[in-house]
Amino acid sequence: MSAQHNPAQEKATIELKGVRKSFGSVDVIHDLDLKVEGGEFVVFVGPSGCGKSTLLRMIAGLEEVTDGDILIAGRDVTDLDPAKRGIAMVFQSYALYPHMSVRENLAFGLEIARTPAAEIRRQVEAAAEILKIGPLLDRRPGQLSGGQRQRVAIGRAIVRKPLVFLFDEPLSNLDAELRVSMRVEIARLHRELGNTMIYVTHDQTEAMTLADRIVVLRDGRIEQVGSPREVYENPANLFVAGFIGSPRMNIIDGTCLTANRVSIAGTEIELNRPMPATPQEVIKLGIRPEHWSITGRQDNSLPAQVEFAEYLGSTRYVHCKLANGDLVTIEQRGGQDAKPGEGLWLNCHQQALKIFSMSGEAR
Ligand SMILES: Nc1ncnc2c1ncn2[C@@H]1O[C@H](COP(=O)(O)OP(=O)(O)OP(=O)(O)O)[C@@H](O)[C@H]1O
Ligand SMILES: [Mg+2]
Questions:
Q1: Counting atoms of ligand 1 from 1, which one is nearest the CA of 54?
Q2: Ligand 1 atom 22 nearest Cα
Q3: Do 63 and 80 belong together in one domain?
Q4: Cα separations (Å) of 357 from 89, 224, 236?
Q5: 153 and 80 part of one domain
Q6: Among all ligands shown, which has an atom nearest to the Cα of 58?
Q7: I want to staple 363 with a disulfide (CB 3.0 to 4.6 A). Which of 124, 179, 192, 276 is the partner?
Q8: Is 142 inside any structural domain?
Q9: In terms of domains, do 117 and 29 share one?
Q10: Both 171 and 228 in a single domain?
Q11: Ligand 1 near 201 CB (within 6 A)
């Protein structure tokens, strides 16, 4: 545990109350409510342009709110200067001062704040220890790797001892291997410091592994807030079902025949539970790639033709076409390699099947 550890800092909640943001006549965030608990790690995900960065920048005070209130640690900060909010933000581009050493980069904010020299030295060394950049303190940013530079950027946030860390896609400039190791570092940082953190990412694995709770945004609105397991296993609607998970959940059309018989791509399937739909009603069925088996012909199996297969070592993704032309992706572990053009029979695991109405609501 670092010398900076301060239990009182762990408790900063963040509350967004009826927050709205418009750029001119364009509404970007619509009447949004969210409470982040003290010490919680919350991840914002959603398609490009849905408002993740805007929301984070509003919390940071870098963007004015059009309406609503923002509270940090119970204090209304809506109109407060960014420097007085107790936040530190880390961006995708690390923007270090190139002519300064790592040590000077880390110290800069504290010097501006006229912190005594001994205290600055102590803070810089504590941050360097947490981030394992002690041996790099006398180098310039140009003499560091991308991952090391991002560590320095995080170090600059740490020395400010913020109540809250805000991260906007901090790892997206790094190569795949570095992303994995930095992801582990960020998880460790959260465990060690215990601060409230909000983290924006496009990376499904980062979201699933780092988050206490994931906030799924679309067009400036929250679609679902839940633990990674909740949003993955019980998506609130079709949007969340299709967004969370990689590869995506297969969404296929079915026509209700009787309470528990459904027609999918011309084949009748008996469901293990009644569906909340009336005969002839079209429903959407959501089935994740790992919830199919290639079975041979049997009751409830669907005929399909292999389009192509992707070999990933421990697993294979077999992309198949159903009789009506709909494509589904099947995750296969073991068994024979599927060949393009080959006919297969597929069975879905009904416990894992999600049924949605056409309007996209979960049923
Ligand atoms: N200064 C601005 N003026 C006008 N529109 C803006 C401004 N900043 C952002 N927007 C718009 O607000 C919407 C949300 O942008 P934002 O940057 O928050 O999206 P995002 O979810 O972070 O996307 P990405 O994943 O691509 O980073 C977008 O439609 C964007 O074009
Ligand atoms: Mg963004």
A1: 18
A2: 53
A3: yes
A4: 40, 17, 12
A5: yes
A6: 1
A7: 276
A8: yes
A9: yes
A10: yes
A11: no
Report the alpha-carbon distance of residue 138 to residue 103 in Å, rounded. Answer: 6
Domain boundary among 214, 240, 266: 240
Q: Render pLDDT for 167-217 as a digit per residue (tens, 0 to 9).
A: 999 998 888 888 888 899 899 999 999 999 999 999 999 999 999 999 999
Whose C-alpha lies nearest to ligand 1, atom 18?
51
Residues 6+ apart with CB under 8 A from 343: 303, 304, 305, 306
Single out the residue in 182, 217, 240 at which a domain terminates.
Answer: 240
d(CA 116, CA 223): 47
Indicate if ligand 1 lies below 6 Å from the C-beta of 52.
yes
**Separation of CA 305 and ligand 1 centre (Å):** 41
Q: How many CA atoms lie within 13 A of 119 on its CB side?
A: 12
CATH of the domain at 148: 3.40.50.300
Give yes or no: residues 193 and 319 share one domain: no
| 306/129: higher pLDDT | 306
pLDDT > 50? residue 3:
no
The pLDDT value recorded for residue 32 is: 98
Give the global pTM.
0.91
pLDDT band at residue 4 using 50, 70 and 90 as cut-offs: very low
Residues constituting the chain: 363
Q: Nearest C-alpha to atom 5 of ligand 1 is from which residue?
A: 23
Does residue 8 lie within any of the structural domains?
no
State the chain's mean pLDDT as an integer: 92
9 belongs to a structural domain:
no
Ligand 1 in reach of 23 Cβ (< 6 A): yes
Nearest residue (CA) to ligand 1, atom 29: 49
Atom of ligand 1 nearest to the CA of 63: 1
Q: Does 144 contact ligand 1 (Cβ within 6 A)?
A: no
User: Is position 143 within any domain?
Assistant: yes
* Alpha carbon separation from 115 to 9, 112, 131, 341 (Å, rounded): 20, 8, 22, 70
Residues spanned by the domain of 182: 14-240
